[in-house]
């Protein structure tokens, strides 16, 4: 009995020493901090992968909290989670940027024929002396052309979100002009 009690006491002391003197996962924590910082400084991750970036930051915060409470196994687990989420954010950011780039390129390419078609329609309406406010239409057309040029500049600067916004504004303006032309043409045709 004395031997069992002695063995039990030694096991208990060793267990307390092992849990009380555990070392913080410094390397894993540093790696997690670096990974999250890399993701925070990646403009594509910030722009296109906000949810994954938020998960990485949250895991990093929980890691630090667990380490401060000396729950090192949990801190190690959160460090791994932060690294994975940060890497996912960077990857999703790259994918999102590529998708936006392709969408912006297609949008700009679609605007060129729409501009030509709209200009041709304006000239035809002017020649037919349709009852339209051509000064206003010309201003709207100029604005649409400027928006298209700004979309191209934003695209060249890799600001694909801005490029899409300008492209959409141009398309809305051109569609509005074409709607006015169509309405005026139908009104004149009905009168005949």
Structure overview:
The protein is an all-alpha fold and 192 residues long. It folds into two domains: 23-95; 97-191, no CATH class. The protein has seven helices and no strands. The protein has helices at 2-20, 26-40, 43-48, 50-68, 72-127, 134-156, 160-191. α2 runs antiparallel to α4, α2 packs parallel to α5 and α6 packs antiparallel against α7. It is rod-shaped and about 115 Å long. The model has no long low-confidence stretch (mean pLDDT 90).
Task: Summarize this entry quickly.
The protein has 192 residues and is mostly helical.
How far do the termini sit from each other? 117 Å
DSSP E strands, number: 0
Q: What fraction of residues sit in β-strands?
A: under 5%
Q: Spans with pLDDT under 50 lasting ≥5 residues?
A: none
Morphology: rod-shaped
Q: Tell me the major beta sheet.
A: none
Oligomeric nature of the chains: single chain
Q: Which whole number gives the mean pLDDT? A: 90
Helix content: over 70%
Give the ordered list of helices and strands.
Answer: HHHHHHH
What structural class is derived from the secondary structure elements?
mainly alpha
Tally of individual helices: 7
C-alpha Rg, in Å?
Answer: 32 Å
């Amino acid at each position: 009995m004395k031997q069992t009690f002695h063995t039990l006491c030694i096991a208990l002391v060793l267990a307390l020493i092992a849990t009380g003197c555990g070392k913080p996962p410094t390397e894993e924590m540093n790696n997690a901090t670096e990974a999250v910082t890399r993701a925070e400084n990646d403009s594509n991750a910030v722009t296109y992968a906000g949810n994954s970036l938020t998960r990485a930051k949250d895991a990093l915060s929980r890691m630090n909290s667990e380490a401060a409470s000396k729950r090192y196994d949990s801190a190690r687990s959160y460090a791994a989670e932060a690294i994975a989420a940060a890497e996912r954010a960077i990857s999703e950011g790259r994918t999102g940027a590529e998708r936006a780039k392709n969408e912006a390129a297609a949008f700009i390419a679609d605007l060129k024929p729409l501009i030509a078609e709209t200009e041709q329609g304006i000239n035809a309406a002017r020649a037919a002396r349709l009852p339209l406010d051509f000064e206003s239409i010309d201003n709207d057309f100029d604005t649409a052309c400027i928006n298209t040029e700004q979309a191209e500049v934003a695209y060249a600067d890799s600001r694909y979100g801005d490029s899409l916004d300008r492209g959409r504004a141009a398309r809305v303006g051109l569609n509005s002009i074409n709607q006015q032309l169509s309405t005026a043409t139908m009104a004149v045709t009905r009168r005949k």
